[in-house]
Design brief:
Tetratricopeptide (TPR) repeat protein, TPR-like_helical_dom_sf, TPR_rpt, Serine Threonine Protein Phosphatase 5, Tetratricopeptide repeat, 167 residues, mainly alpha
Length: 167
């Protein structure tokens, strides 16, 4: 067996071009097309969601202390940082503060969240219940009853009792 000779001339240029193209392709796949955690977009989204989750937790602390205006600010930041589940609690804060229009808006946004139940147990039943209350306070009995019935079907124990008061 003879000793291998290093690439020279045209072979070296062709190898260099192919290697460069391969590395560019690999870099592009890693940065922009990857579906795993190495994708920069995915990493940024995870960082934002983690920040949104921390803000959500701060909002919950204030909510539990009945500081609804302060809690609402954290829930808004949480939503802005990619944690849409916070619409449910922001809507509830707005309900406690008497801002029925905003409460309705955020609760309707909360219904559109696809993974709400994965994030918070009883998520949809709570949202439906609060929407029922909002519609009842707005004198929209038809929508109030529809949402309270849905909340009851989803297992919300308060919904049936509240529903009996408005029928």
């Amino acid at each position: 067996m003879g000793k291998k000779q290093p690439l020279k001339g045209t072979k070296l240029i062709v190898f260099g071009i192919l290697f460069t193209v391969f590395m560019l392709f690999l870099g592009y796949k890693i940065l922009f097309k990857s579906n795993d955690e190495t994708n920069i977009t995915s990493i940024n989204q995870k960082i934002e969601k983690d920040k949104g989750l921390r803000q959500f937790d701060k909002g919950l602390e204030l909510y539990d202390q009945k500081k609804y205006a302060a809690a609402g600010k954290y829930f808004e930041e949480s939503i802005n940082n990619g944690f849409p589940v916070a619409h449910a609690l922001l809507g509830e804060c707005k309900l406690h503060l008497g801002d029925l229009k905003s409460a309705q808006y955020h609760l309707m946004q909360a219904l559109a969240v696809e993974n709400g139940e994965n994030e918070l147990a009883g998520y949809y039943s709570g949202v439906e219940f609060n929407l029922g209350v909002v519609f009842n306070l707005q004198k929209d009995t038809k929508n109030a009853i529809a949402h309270l019935k849905k909340a009851s079907e989803l297992g919300n124990k308060d919904a049936a009792m509240y529903l009996s008061k408005i029928k």
